Amino acid sequence: MTERQQPPPSGPASSLAVLALADARLPGGGHAHSGGLEEAVHRGTVTGPHELREFLRGRLHGAGRQAAVFAAAAAHAAARGAPRSHWSELDTEYDARVPSPAQRAASRSQGRGTARAGRTAWPSPALRELLSVTDSPHHPLVVGVLVGASSLAGPKDAAAVVAYLALSGPASAAVRLLGLDPFAANAAVAAFETDTERLARAAARTAALPAAELPSTGAPALDLLAQAHRKHHEEEVRLFAS
């Protein structure tokens, strides 16, 4: 790997910013999204702990992997003081890798909420640069900026946060949607500890690549669930926005 491709070393995962961003209590709006689980439950695809675990596997290695790649890239860019043009490229490239309009809207909605929290708790030049490009940045980019601006964290930490959120959001939603035992939902998330670590490390290795060369991971089933959920959400009241 060339020097240009080497991301800066990741700091300890105990950074307060990392822990807070992974906390469901952060007022970023993540509690309003099920990551497609509500539609899967509505269709009878997910009915219990076993199906939830398989759903989470797809979430992690599909949408979660894609988010992790861009969160790591954003953390690297924040740490090196990337110019405004780079943030525009990252935003555009992530948009291009998420074909579902519903998923893009959900990502930007959570990005806005997390950016509001970030402006208060972790203001930084990198966050200002990102928000000068768009007032509705994608969620992985915001997480990456907030983590990367910390001297105690780096690309791998940013990737781990969004990968974890790809699991914890739907798992939390399953408690409400299925009346699932919270301990069973947590166990479903914990089962992917090794997968999440490997995914975060892989994302960090690509963090210094140009935006156009960042890996792309497709998740067609999740795209279809997101589109169907948005249509049904317009027709009837649903618990979650996505």
Automatic annotation (TrEMBL):
Record flagged with keyword Chaperone: yes
Region annotation (Disordered) ranges: 96-121
UniProt GO MF annotations: nickel cation binding
Metal-binding as UniProt keyword: no
Pfam families named in the record: UreF
Keywords, alphabetical: Chaperone, Nickel insertion
Gene3D superfamilies: Urease accessory protein UreF
Entry protein name: Urease accessory protein UreF
InterPro entries: UreF, UreF_sf
Domain of life where this protein originates: Bacteria
Organism: Actinopolyspora mortivallis
